[in-house]
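ping. complex inputs:
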Amino acid sequence: MGFLKKLFSSAPARPSSSLYNFAVKCDRCGETIEGHINLANDLSNEFEDDREIFFVRKVLMGSSRCFQQIEVQMKFDANKQLIEKEISGGKFV
Ligand SMILES: [Zn+2]
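pong. complex structure:
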C-alpha cells in the first residue's frame, strides 16, 4: 500500500489553466475546428538563440466529410505565453 500512496502523491493535480484553447477554420470546407494544447504535456522544450522556448505541432481534422488536414505549429516562451503561430490548410479564428 505504501507504494501506491507514493505513486499518487507524486502526481500533483494540474490546474485547468494549463490548457491552451484555440480554433481554426478549414480552408476547404469552412468548418470551424477547436483544438486544445496541454501546456503541461504537449510542449517540447527547445532552445532558440540561447533562450528557452516551447514548441508544439498539432494536426487537426474536421468531423465532416472533408478530409483536409490542418497543421498548426505554435511557439511559447518560458512563461508558456504564445509568441508565434503558423498554420497550413486553414486559418486561425
Ligand atoms: Zn474541411
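Residues 26, 28-29, 31, 62, 66, 68 surround zinc ion (CB under 6 Å).
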